[in-house]
Every structure is written in C-alpha cells, then in structure tokens.
Amino acid sequence: MSWSRDILCVLVLICVTLGGLSTGCEEKATESKTEEPPKNVDPGGPFFHQQSVENLEALFNELKMAADSDNLARAAMLTRALMPDRARLMAVLRDDTPEAVLQQNLDDLQNRFPDDESLGWKFVPTLKSESTFKVSFASAELLWTFRKNTAAQLFPTGITDAAKLLFKPDTVFYIVEAKEPRSEEMGSRFQPFFWDGKQWTYLGEIWRFVQVPEVMNLTREECSAMFDKQTIHLGEQENKADRKMGRLLGRKMATEGVDRCIKNGLPRSVYDCRMAAADSDEWTACDPPW
C-alpha cells in the first residue's frame, strides 16, 4: 500500500505545481490586460476636440502629419470639422449682426474651402515636417482696444477694427503659427479660430463684409484706453521744464478728451490715428476737431 501513498503524494504535488503555474499565468494575463490611458487622437478616426491651447496645437500637428503622409482624405476630414455653419458663428457674433454680413461670410467660406480632398491643404503650412506650432489668443476686448505688445497685434487690422461691431464681449479668438525650428522668422499663420462650445471653429474673414462707421461710439473704458497715456505724454512734452505740471496738464486734457469722446463719439480718422500711435513709442498728434 506504500506505493499507493507515494503515487498519491506525487499526484498532489503535480496538482499543486500546476495550480501555482496556472496562478502565475493568470497574474501575467491580468497584467497584460491593463488598459493604456486613452489617447487624444485616434490615428485612424476623428480628432477629439477640447478647449485648450495644447489641443488646438495637437489638431494642427495631426493635419500636418496627415498631409505629409499623403493622407489627404484624413486631412480634409479634420479641416471639414473646423468649417462653421450659422449656429456655430452665432456663438461669438453679436445678436444684431446683419444677416447680409453673416451670409456673405458663409458664401465666402464655401468658395474658398471647396468640399473635396483639396480641403486638406487649406490649413497645412508649406514647411518641413518638423515644423512646430504655437497658439496665441486674444479676447474681443483686447482686439478692440488693440493693446501694444499683446497677441492682438498678431491678428489682421480688419478684425481689430470691426471687433466691437461684430463680437460678443466675452469671446476669445485664437491664432496658430507654424514655425521652422531653426528659423523663427519664417512661418505660416492661420487665424482666427474660436471655441463654439463643443469644438474648434474657423471664423472666416467676416470683417471684410462690415462697414465701419465714420464715428466710433466708445465706452468710457475704451476712450480712456486711447486718451489717457498718450495725452499725459503730450502734456509732459509741452512742459519739459516742469514734468510734474506737464502730467497734471496731460491728465486734464485726457479727462476732457474722454468726456468728449463719450458724448460725441470719436471720429474714425482719429480712431485710426490713435490705433497706429499705440504701436509707436513716439507721440503722434491725433487730436479730434472738437
């Protein structure tokens, strides 16, 4: 009977050993099933839009990679998703935007962005594959007041002129620049884009269809932004012998200018002059004929 016990012990040992091996395999299988964190972009599928600068940069990287690999169908799909319709545009346009302006912009977009594979090249820079992208942004208020040394200077003059007439005050617009790694001065610029509440959207050049009035009706803050600093500087120049008195004179002149600007509106020629002067360190005479 001893041999029976020996065989039984061997069988038990084999079972234990196999069980241990089986457990080890199950642990490894469990480890191999650990899911990787979801990626932002499915290489063969849609781009997942998120409201962040990094996401907009990633979108343009995807466009560039698709074009570089001659996958124009994918590049066109990514570009098509940026094209606005009426509802998406109204996310940033004022409620009183003229219907004619809105329709002209949509017609222009349809002409400039035909819905075929050539669409995939519209936002692809003609740079090397290692091009990098940089996103800058400016609020509608910043575009309107056109502050010096801000992202507003990257946008076309037309959009800054028409910003107050077109855009809701709390909207933000984005510009994408493609740069050569070894040549920061060379590049391509694509703009303006905005977040429509769900995804990135291209605005188009809607400012081209807006008639800017001869007299600009500005708020106190907007008038102050254009009168205070420059007029105080003018007072200092007129009273070089006594800069303190010059500043006092400049503040008095600025206050009067702001009051008249609000009461009578600012002539368009003066507005243009002051916008140009804001980009210069030297004083430019822009006094309105009041």
Structural description of this entry:
The radius of gyration is 31 Å and the shape is elongated. The protein has 2 domains: 53-209, no CATH class; 215-277, no CATH class. Strand 3 (183-195) and strand 4 (200-202) form a beta hairpin. It has 290 residues and is of the alpha+beta class. It is built from 10 helices and 6 strands, in the order H-H-H-H-H-E-H-H-E-E-E-E-H-H-E-H. It has helices spanning 2-32, 53-68, 72-80, 86-89, 99-112, 140-145, 157-166, 220-238, 243-264, 268-277; strands at residues 132-139, 172-180, 183-195, 200-202, 215-216, 266-267.
Mean pLDDT reading: 77
Proportion of beta-strand residues: 5-15%
**Ends apart, CA distance between termini:** 124 Å
Helix content: 40-55%
Number of contiguous helices:
10
How is the main sheet built?
4 strands, antiparallel
Structural class: alpha+beta
Q: Tell me, what's the shape?
A: elongated
Q: Segments where pLDDT lies below 50 for 5+ residues?
A: 14-43
Count structural domains: 2
What is the β-strand count?
Answer: 6
**SSE run:** HHHHHEHHEEEEHHEH
**Cα radius of gyration in angstroms:** 31 Å
How are strands sequenced across the largest beta sheet? 1-2-3-4
